[in-house]
Amino acid sequence: MGVEKIPVLCRKLGIPQEKISLLREALTHRTYAVEHALTYDNQRLEFLGDAVLEIIHTEYLFHRYPDLPEGDLTKIRSALACESALASMARKLELGSYLLIGNGEKECGGNRRNSTLCDLFEAVLGAVYLACGMDKARDFVHKSFEIQLNDPKKLLTSLNPKGRLQEFSQSRWHCTPEYQLLRSGGPQHQPFFEVEVVVYKFIAVGSGNSRKNAEVSAALKLIEYLDEK
Known about the structure:
single chain; mainly alpha; 3-stranded antiparallel sheet; 3 strands; 10% strand
């Protein structure tokens, strides 16, 4: 897709046609700007979109969890706005297919790179905000993050599952989790580890490409199970 497809995205996002120049700027990677001698790229809109996203997430979490302390709210907000999360939102919207990017960067897969897609999502949000206002920007974010915002508190578990499991087990049963390597193997370039974690009378098994990642996987499974009990 190229410049001619921008009106399609403009309509999808609900941006008025007279504000299409904002969307084009949001979709312009700096390498494309250099190749075509443009005086703009999407970095300024990315800067704006980052601030708008923070306000929207902060407002949402503040009202959604009135009893959560500042530290937990900050952790959830960071998880919602991390590079991989925003790149995932950009992929969901297929924004990478609309990105105007330099030929060399495109050949290297730049329009699929997490960092590029993260910046792109923020830039598009900045364009939506300028073109349509905060209400439309808020709606854009909430629809993009629909699944994650069903219960963003669960993100606390995924941030540090081993730490969360240890805190839980110490406060509930005055004991700490015990991890045991069950098996390992695989070729050197693709190792495999399976670990069991035991807390009180509860057991979970996790796997990963390192013992540490397998322990994290096991802890996450167990803390999610205990949270539901």
